[in-house]
Write a structure and sequence with these properties.
The complex is a heterotrimer of chains A (about 350), B (about 300) and C (about 325).
Chain A: E1 6-17, E2 20-32, E3 37-41, H1 48-56, E4 64-73, E5 76-77, H2 83-89, E6 94-97, H3 111-122, H4 127-140, H5 146-149, H6 159-171, E7 177-181, H7 189-206, E8 209-214, H8 217-223, E9 226-231, E10 234-240, H9 241-246, H10 251-258, H11 299-303, E11 308-310, E12 316-318, H12 329-338
Parallel strand pairs in A: 3-8, 3-9, 6-7, 7-8
Antiparallel strand pairs in A: 1-2, 1-4, 4-5, 9-10, 10-12, 11-12
Helix pairs in contact in A: 3-4, 3-6, 4-6, 6-7
Chain B: H1 2-29, H2 44-53, H3 60-72, H4 87-122, H5 127-141, H6 144-158, H7 174-200, H8 203-210, H9 215-253, H10 258-268, H11 271-299, H12 301-309
Helix pairs in contact in B: 1-11, 4-5, 4-7, 4-9, 4-10, 5-7, 6-7, 6-9, 7-9, 8-9, 9-10, 9-11, 10-11, 11-12
Chain C: H1 31-41, H2 43-61, H3 97-133, H4 137-156, H5 159-169, H6 174-201, H7 204-211, H8 216-252, H9 264-271, H10 274-277, H11 280-308
InterPro entries (chain A): AAA+_ATPase, ABC_Ni/Peptide_Import, ABC_transporter-like_ATP-bd, ABC_transporter-like_CS, Oligopep_ABC_C, P-loop_NTPase
Subcellular location (chain A): Cell membrane
Keywords (chain A): ATP-binding, Cell membrane, Membrane, Nucleotide-binding, Transport
């Protein structure tokens, strides 16, 4: 346990809004090891980005607040830190890559200055050295002609290039962990692949841990070692990527898999979207939140939240289907067809 | 870049020319001539001489050309009520006083407006924000010609902190500058608040937070500069408003500035003076707006590229 | 019931539910409902609205509440303090300030609202034409360019200076003030409307409507107007006070309405001397009214703007 770089335990985050209190994250537990990439997967609104913000200590308060749970990073408890202590973790030990590179950079500040802004704060360096560091970072993330680029403004960069700059910012202080919040969603497909390659390459080079937040199973397969599948603010399935892809255990994961396009598929499967919409997190259901959309739902599913069942080492899913008392899947399917 | 400048300067000249032509034709649309009211009292010969002196005996197009010619020579024309002193003399006399009050007012409005706006934005929906906003709304609601008597009443008569009437020392300029500054200060506060709130919600602020930069530095380095950009575009109309504000403020405080000459000109129906000072004011304004545009290009790196691209 | 049953019995297929129950969203509000709801919750805006309503009511009935007309002089009663006879006191000619103040409100409101409406009509027409023409072939673009050049030049002119010039030339009076105020006042509205239309034109739902074969009048009626009306109304709530301000400014300079007509600007100007004599009510009431009116329209306009802005959520 102590060996995990990041440990999130029973995290609960609520947001006060005009319409009531949203329970965005409702007891999430997972960990990340050193040098590992963990993917956090789920539809928008499932609480994955909020979890990332919580790790960075960036939950806007008000309206948001961490109601319960603990986040430990490298032996330190982030959730109990004051503002000043958080500043020494943010950027220095945990870097963050954001979704939209078009807006993640300050339009009126030179790119080089933005990259080393955090570095300059923690290391007393001269202007010369800072500039050198900025160019080194640009080179690291594969931007050609860093001597010229370092003095340019963000609007002179393309989207993919900007995302490389954002990655350079995240890495400038040599963090142990990088949280990437949908880093490829806003990019063209070819650029997406380049950015993923870059992240994987950097991870190997720098012995980084990465938390990859995404809704895209393709990205998960591409880059992650392990995955956490989130739904409506809770973790429904977690495990090694191979296990989850080869042998998914939660009906929600099945749904996600079916909505994934397959280029290599021999049989021409139709893409099947998951019907229905996620539950209202103002009043979360007491049972399994996926039950209303689940074609295998039983009565118990609506009454009580299932505990996680363990399959292979680290592969867990929270679903009543894996309870020994549950009927076989075929019966449930048949029952569903009858009515 | 230089092409853009040239285009802008041409636009400036065009705008000025339109203003001159417009005011000139307006002034000559008035039936009779400036001496009409005095024609009963003055002998015929003197009237003729007077008309000749002010070129009023020439046909209108000729008068127009003569006026344009004198403008090009930087002569803003004569005054009818005061025979020895022309508009140029009035501007020479009044410019210092007007500029002092105007510049002080702009400086106060800008400094405190940006400061209050930023503070309000950072303390959004707290009592600090509400106080700043109520003050700002009051500043917009109370015109300078009401603010001025209030200031005189409280800060000069009831509690004699500052002297008023005429402008013999710097202390005399404090109250007129304040009276003038309130409106723009309120407007800048409001715009700055909105702009700052907008900027602080931008993703690049989140990027800076994720870098571990303390909030104070984020506001200074990332917030203010980006938030000022939209403010700069409002500066033109704001300064135009301030300039018209000087008319009444100078009149109420009896400051011997250009505005006072202008208002006196209106009261006396001294058309050449109205014409001359209007042209002067317009020239100053057009120049200020041009300078603001130039400043904008230096503050926002994105502008340079797009004008080069055109 | 579930409590009595053993848990085991719950492990059976769930009874199928009606489709409607799958999606359990919270009730959504229409755009209009959201806007009014936000506006009503904005206390300051409601204060503004109340003040505006009161002001209009008093402008209509105020002068009739006292037995004096705004122009009745009575030198015996000059400079009277506030009393049960004269609720707001009297001025140096013994005219009743209460009557004059609300008569002044009439003048201010008539001028403010008429100028704003004229600005609206001219501005929406010109801006609409420019916005519609832009991007419609060479000829359309040229019309747009000509209009924009005109607007640019007019916008470059200092507003109050132009109004002053016009008033110097024209006979002073309510109608001429309205004309002078709207002579260049419509430019702001035209710019706004053109900008809005250009922005909307490029949006997908307008293109979709065009592709589906909707004719321009229909697009205008069903899409462009509903989408620009908010900005236009907000602009209107700001032009009214600025016109009222301009009127009192002009009257203050002696270029506005002429005696014996009362306007807040002329009353303020008349009262300037009283700072020294201490007849404070002479300055207080017109100054308060100008400030309250400006305040009311501005906070209401602000509230409306916030309410219409989808980015601002509570």
């Amino acid at each position: 346990m102590a060996d995990h770089l990041l440990q999130v335990e029973n995290l609960r985050v609520h947001f006060k809004t005009y319409g009531g209190e949203v329970q965005a994250v409702r007891g999430v537990t997972f960990h990340v090891d050193r040098g590992e990439t963990l993917a956090v997967v789920g539809e928008s609104g499932c609480g994955k980005s909020v979890t990332a913000q919580a790790i960075m200590g960036l939950i806007p308060n008000p309206p948001g607040r961490i109601v319960d749970g603990q986040i430990r990073f490298d032996g330190k408890v982030i959730t109990g830190m004051n503002k000043k202590e958080l500043l020494s973790v943010r950027g220095a030990e945990i870097g963050m890559v954001f979704q939209d590179p078009m807006t993640a950079l300050n339009p009126t500040m030179k790119v080089g200055a933005q990259i080393v802004e955090g570095f300059v704060r923690t290391h007393q360096v001269s202007k010369e050295e800072a500039r050198k560091k900025a160019m080194e970072m640009l080179r690291l993330v594969g931007i050609p002609d860093p001597e010229k680029r370092v003095d340019q403004y963000p609007h002179e960069f393309s989207g993919g290039m900007r995302q490389r700059v954002v990655i350079a910012i995240a890495l400038a202080n040599n963090p142990k962990l990088v949280i990437a919040d949908e880093p490829t969603t806003a990019l063209d497909v070819t650029i997406q692949a380049q950015i993923l390659d870059l992240l994987r390459e950097l991870q190997e080079k720098q012995q980084l841990s990465i938390v990859m937040i995404t809704h895209d199973l393709g990205v998960v397969a591409e880059i992650a070692h392990r995955a956490v599948v989130m739904y409506a603010g809770i973790v429904v399935e977690t495990g090694k990527v191979e296990d989850i892809f080869a042998n998914p255990k939660h009906p929600y994961t099945w749904g996600l898999m079916r909505s994934l396009p397959r280029i290599d598929g021999v049989e021409k499967e139709r893409l099947v979207p998951i019907e229905g919409t996620p539950p209202d997190l103002f009043h979360p259901p007491k049972g399994c939140p996926f039950a209303p959309r689940c074609q295998f739902a039983m009565e118990i599913c609506e009454q009580q939240m299932p505990d996680a069942s363990t399959f292979t080492a680290g592969h867990q899913a929270a679903c009543w289907l894996h309870d020994p008392r549950a009927p076989k899947l075929e019966e449930l399917v048949a029952a569903g067809r009858q009515t | 870049m230089s092409r853009y400048l040239l285009k802008r300067i041409l636009m400036m000249v065009l705008t000025l020319w339109i203003i001159v032509t417009l005011t000139f034709s307006l002034m000559h649309m008035i039936p009779g001539d400036p001496f009409a009211s005095e024609s009963d009292q003055l002998p015929e010969q003197i009237l003729l001489n007077l008309r000749a002196k002010y070129n009023l005996d020439e046909p209108l197009p000729m008068q127009y050309l003569l006026y344009l010619k004198s403008l090009v020579m930087l002569d803003l024309g004569p005054s009818i009520k005061s025979e020895t002193r022309g508009v140029n003399d009035m501007i020479k006399d009044g410019f210092g006083a007007s500029a002092l009050i105007g510049l002080q007012a702009i400086a106060v409005a800008l400094f405190f407006g940006l400061l209050f706006g930023t503070i309000a934005a950072l303390n959004r929906n707290t009592w600090i924000d509400y106080t700043a906003m109520v003050m700002a709304v009051l500043g917009i609601a109370v015109p300078s010609f009401i603010m001025a008597p209030l200031l005189i009443n409280y800060l000069a008569i009831k509690w004699p902190l500052f002297p008023v009437a005429t402008l013999t020392s710097w202390k005399h300029s404090v109250l007129p500058s304040l009276a003038l500054a309130f409106g723009p200060l309120a407007i800048i506060t409001r715009y700055m608040r909105t702009s700052m709130i907008d900027v602080m919600n931008q993703n690049y602020i989140r990027t800076a937070e994720a870098k571990g930069i303390p909030t104070f530095l984020i506001v200074i380095k990332h917030g203010i500069r980006n938030a000022i950009l939209p403010i700069v575009t409002f500066m033109g109309p704001l300064i135009a408003g301030l300039l018209t504000g000087t008319f009444v403020v100078e009149k109420i405080f009896a400051v011997p500035g250009i505005g006072k000459y202008f208002v006196d000109g209106i009261f006396n129906r001294d058309y050449p003076v109205i014409l001359g000072t209007t042209v002067f004011y317009s020239a100053i304004l057009v120049l200020i707006i041009f300078l603001i545009d130039l400043a904008y290009m230096f503050i926002d790196p994105r502008i340079k590229l797009s004008s080069r691209g055109r | 019931m579930a409590v009595d049953q053993s848990v085991n019995e719950l492990f059976r297929p769930r009874a199928q539910k009606a489709d409607g129950q799958i999606a359990q969203m919270r009730p959504s509000l229409t755009h209009f409902q959201q806007v009014t709801r936000k506006l009503v919750r904005n206390k300051l805006a409601m204060v503004g609205l109340t003040l505006i309503v009161l002001l209009i009511a008093m402008a209509i009935i105020g002068p009739h509440l006292v037995p004096y007309s705004y122009s009745d002089q009575s030198l015996l009663n000059a400079n009277q303090k506030i009393s049960s006879e004269h609720w707001f006191g009297t001025d140096e000619l013994g005219r009743d300030m209460f009557s004059r103040t609300w008569y002044g409100a009439r003048i201010s409101l008539i001028i403010g609202i008429s100028a704003a409406l004229i600005d609206l009509v001219i501005g929406v027409t010109v801006g609409g034409i420019a916005g519609y023409m832009a991007g419609r072939g060479k000829k359309g673009d040229r019309i747009d360019t000509i209009i924009m050049r005109l607007i640019e030049v007019l916008y470059g002119l200092p507003y109050l200076l132009v109004v002053i010039m016009l008033m110097v030339v024209m006979e002073p009076g309510i109608v001429t003030i309205i004309i002078a105020l709207s002579a260049t006042g419509w430019v702001g509205m035209a710019r706004l409307v053109r900008g809005q239309i250009l922005q909307l034109k490029n949006q997908e739902f307008i293109m979709a409507a065009q592709v589906l074969g909707a004719k321009f009048p229909r697009i205008l009626l069903r899409h462009l107007i509903p989408n620009t009306i908010g900005v236009i109304i907000v602009n209107l709530t700001f032009t009214i006070p600025s016109a009222i301000f301009a009127e009192s400014f002009l009257s203050f300079l002696g270029l506005g309405v002429q005696a014996p007509i009362a306007s807040w600007g002329t009353m303020t100007n008349d009262a300037l001397g009283v700072i020294l004599t201490g007849d404070w009510w002479r300055l207080f009431f017109p100054a308060l009214m100008i400030s309250l009116t400006m305040f009311a329209f501005n906070v209401f306009g602000d509230g409306l703007q916030d309410a219409l802005d989808p980015r601002i959520r509570e």
